[in-house]
Design brief:
The protein has 12 helices and 12 strands. By secondary structure, the protein is α+β, with helices and mostly antiparallel strands. It folds into 3 domains: 86 residues, Orthogonal Bundle (Butyryl-Coa Dehydrogenase, subunit A, domain 1), CATH 1.10.540.10; 116 residues, Beta Barrel (Butyryl-CoA Dehydrogenase, subunit A, domain 2); 155 residues, Butyryl-CoA Dehydrogenase, subunit A, domain 3. α3 crosses α7, α5 packs antiparallel against α6 and α7 packs antiparallel against α8. GO terms for molecular function: acyl-CoA dehydrogenase activity; flavin adenine dinucleotide binding.
Length: 402
């Protein structure tokens, strides 16, 4: 892997350039729009932004005409530009959870499923939700998917699903759902097996109990607690194979972690731009802030962290394109990039002082969003624990062969 060469294509540069121009000129002025609420931009605002993105030819830019997909390395170039505003990924349709759900359905779904569930997502006419995480109070699945409690049992050529889900991003207002449920009884001591199901939303059997008030506010619909009672799903809406849900979760989550890194790299870059401009125009004690070593060094450290994070993203994207990205690589990227970008955002707030903690600029929101990112798609500590287990496994295996 050390000899891997990162090659940026002209196609990716051209698409990324158009996306960046659109985000900077069209999307950023919407950041102060009253329709940006504590649970994300309103449906009206999403439609308006996507209409402008469609007219500008930058809607769903990572998926090509005819259904082809940019390589992951090309996608990295584009998604970093879309992330220059918290509203950017929503506007150009590269946001979570839709981007990851599109990838999963595209890789796993049947032709009929793609026509019914994927096409509206790619067109930007629908949003989706991924129903996996469960409430901690109920002892359900969070970072440990083997604790999955939501059940799916056969009833003729249908499945009946019951359970409670939590932190379900975008459930309010979504038209497409992917529900993950335990599909074996487990009474015989077998290992938990899961199956994924595609569902149309809204559905009377899927009830939103409440929208959580969370630190972040960039994702439409916010994050919901959802109760599923007696949901009937026909066999032809099983996504992939029965009992293979955990495998498909990795198909989705490994690239999705990387996509998060791409988008938030763009946001951290924007925060750094704002903080640098502030430090180059604000004076204190007779000179510009940037000329004070404490401030200048923080901005220099930001530049280093951003460059190192970009290298990690591009390296993992190229490895994924080579077909060999595993959970270890995606875990390393998630940990390294999330922590680096949080340091960047934190320094930006510090450099800007009182202005940094106000909502006069987007820096305050970027700080909140990236703080949440350190937990979403697996907390830093869970990924480190996974890496430590692999180190132990590999080391012990090596000792046995010596």
């Amino acid at each position: 892997m050390s000899s891997m060469e990162v090659v940026r294509t002209e196609r990716a540069r051209e698409i990324a350039s158009r996306v960046e121009a659109f985000v900077r000129t069209v999307v950023i002025p919407y950041e102060r729009d009253a329709r940006c609420g504590s649970h994300g931009p309103s449906e009206e605002l999403v439609r308006e932004l996507r209409g402008k993105a469609r007219a500008a030819g930058v809607l769903t830019p990572h998926i090509l005409a005819g259904g082809g997909h940019l390589t992951q390395l090309e996608t990295a170039t584009v998604l970093k530009c879309s992330g220059l505003s918290p509203l950017g990924p929503v506007a150009v349709n590269t946001a979570a959870p839709d981007e990851g759900n599109m990838l999963l359905i595209g890789k796993t779904g049947t032709d009929a499923q793609k026509a019914r569930f994927l096409a509206p997502l790619v067109a930007g006419d629908a949003r989706s939700a991924f129903f996996m995480t469960e409430p901690a109070a109920d002892g359900g699945a969070g970072s440990d998917p083997s604790m999955l409690k939501t059940s799916a049992r056969r009833d003729g050529n249908h499945w009946i699903i019951d359970g409670t889900k939590a932190f379900i991003t975008g459930a309010e207002g979504a038209s497409v759902g992917i529900v993950m449920a335990r599909s074996n009884a487990g009474d015989d001591g077998d290992k938990v097996k899961a199956t994924m199901f595609l569902v149309d939303l809204p559905n009377p059997a899927i009830r939103l109990e409440r929208i959580l008030d969370t630190i972040d506010s960039s994702m439409p619909g916010g994050h919901a607690v959802v109760r599923i009672e007696g949901l009937r799903v026909p066999d032809d809406q099983v996504l992939g194979e029965v009992h293979e849900g955990f495998k498909y979760a990795q198909v989705r989550l490994s690239p999705a972690r990387l996509s998060h890194c791409m988008r938030w790299h763009g946001a951290a870059t924007r925060a750094h731009e704002i903080a640098t401009q502030y430090a180059c125009t604000r004076q204190a004690f007779g000179k510009l802030l940037i000329d004070h070593e404490g401030v200048g060094f923080m901005l220099a450290e930001n530049t280093i962290d951003l460059q190192q994070a970009e290298l990690m993203i591009d390296w993992c994207a190229a490895v994924l394109d080579g077909g060999s990205l595993g959970t270890s690589e995606s875990s390393m990227a998630k940990v390294a990039v999330a922590d680096a970008l949080f340091r960047v955002a934190d320094r930006c707030v510090q450099v800007m002082g009182g202005t940094g903690v106000s909502r006069d600029t987007i820096v305050e929101q970027v700080f909140r969003e990236i703080r949440a990112f350190r937990i979403y798609d697996g907390p830093t500590e869970v990924h480190k624990w996974s890496l430590a287990k692999k180190l132990k496994r590999d080391t012990l295996a090596g000792l046995q062969t010596d």
